[in-house]
Amino acid sequence: MYKPSYGYFIILIFLALGVTACSLSDINTYNNEKTATAKAKQESTGYYPEKRTDKAKNVVSTDPKLLQEEDFEISYRSHKIDKITDIKELIHKLGYGEGYDSSNRGFISGNGAYRRWNLSYPNYVDPEIRFVVLSKIELEGEELVDGESYLVAVSLESPKFKTKRGLKIGDTLGKVLQLYGKPSIVTNGSLLYSKNGLHLRILWDTKKENVYNITIDYNMEKSIKQQRSADYVEEDAQPDPNLEPYTIQEGQSFITSLNGWGKVRFVSTLKDEETNDLIHAKFFLEVNSDKYVEKKILYEFPEFFGNNGRMIDRIKAVSFKDLNQDGRTDIVIIADYITGVNAHGIETLPIAGIYFQKKDKTYTTLPELDKSINQTGHNRTLQNVIQYVSKQRINVQ
User: Fold this and answer.
1) What is the pLDDT of residues 168-185, one digit of tens each?
2) What is the value of pTM for the model shown?
3) CA distance 283 to 143
């Protein structure tokens, strides 16, 4: 996982949706509508609790056109910024920004192989725009320097700059919806719009009731994979040749007794997915006996719910408990998954999933239940999950 010293944490604010004061459930309602026009026609008072129909019509009067890759481009000092922006050329034209050296050369995080840092213009104290960069660390004589570098993301922090569709800092939520329509993802404090691996994240200030940050993610997944390739697992994580290409997360691997299996070792692992460059969680049961010099894999668990199109940051918690009172041991897992990026690094969101033990001692998942647990926010702690599931009627054969 990313270590705290790397600075990969962001304080997520609670998103209040509406012209004056809206709730997260309101924008989820908006998400379920087929078009923005239909939403405006249906709305009278609920979507805008303190504003009525006239305001609603102004907010979503037309259907915005579908996102194109060009929507993720911006212009800064007549320099086009996109996924393939040449960082060295950008620095050649604009310099490093005032305060670069005194700000530890823009450092965000790093390890022995890569350095994540930011270019802030016009300065680092009160920036108008930030460019997040990943650089390979190279040795030039006796000095470590930035080698091959590329743009990870750009963060707009001043109303002086607009997105391709005209959104800027200080605009209202209504303006966001009018320009972009239905978000791809709604999380605590942000709206996310995505197209072909490009992501536009809009952060919302609940007190001032306007947009306070706009971040465009160009190469975040690529940068995370590269930076992690040198040092992405927990300090106590160990590779296991019998589980190759998985890396065991020792802090979330336990010796336990399970019905039908006896005393075994539950193994939490991380795996790099070669097909889509995502790092996923995978779980196994191993023999726990002195009779075996080498580890022996007894069972491979089904796909974890959180892996669906997401990249994991860490396996957060594991619990063994009979959740549906059938006398068999079920397993609750919570993992943090990466949801986006801002100028300081990555944002994460907890995802919970449950393995229910069947009569034949194997395990199964209930995707609809997992979905409900996470959509209702009962995924923050093991206690949250257990209390929620205990109220459901679950029968697993």
Assistant:
1) 999 998 899 899 998 887
2) 0.57
3) 43
Q: What is the H or E stretch that residue 117 is in?
A: strand 114-121
Cβ atoms of 153 and 133 within 8 Å: the answer is no
Cα dihedral: 101, 106, 107, 113 (round 10): -90
Low-confidence ranges of the chain (pLDDT < 50): 1-62, 231-233, 275-276, 293
Q: Is the peptide bond before 245 cis (omega within 30 degrees of 0)?
A: yes
User: What three-state secondary structure class fits 193?
Assistant: strand
User: Which neighbouring-strand residues pair with 62?
Assistant: none
Please give the Cα distance from 374 to 70 (Å, whole number): 33
Complete DSSP assignment for 14-55: PP--SSS---HHHHHHHHHSS-HHHHHHH-SSSSSTTS-HHH
Taking the C-alpha atoms of residue 113 and residue 132, their distance in angstroms, rounded to an integer, is 17
Q: Which residue has 């019998």 as its token pair?
A: 242
Instruction: Look up residue 201 and give its DSSP letter.
Output: E
Instruction: Give the chain's largest Cα–Cα span.
Output: 76
Intra-chain end-to-end CA distance of the chain, in Å: 36
Contacts of 340 (CB under 8 A, 6+ apart): 187, 190, 192, 199, 201, 215, 217, 220, 346, 347
Q: Containing H/E element for 339?
A: strand 330-342
Quote the crossing angle between the two packed helices 367-375 and 382-390, to the nearest 10°.
120
pLDDT at position 153: 94
Give the integer Cα–Cα distance in Å for 134 and 130: 13
Q: Which residues of 125-137 are buried (b: 16+ CB within 10 A; e: fewer)?
A: eebbbbbbbbbee
- Report helix, strand or coil for 11: coil
Nearest of 249, 228, 231, 232 to residue 240 by alpha carbon: 249
Q: Which residues, in sequence order, are CB contacts of 100 under 8 Å at separation 6+?
A: 106, 119, 120, 124
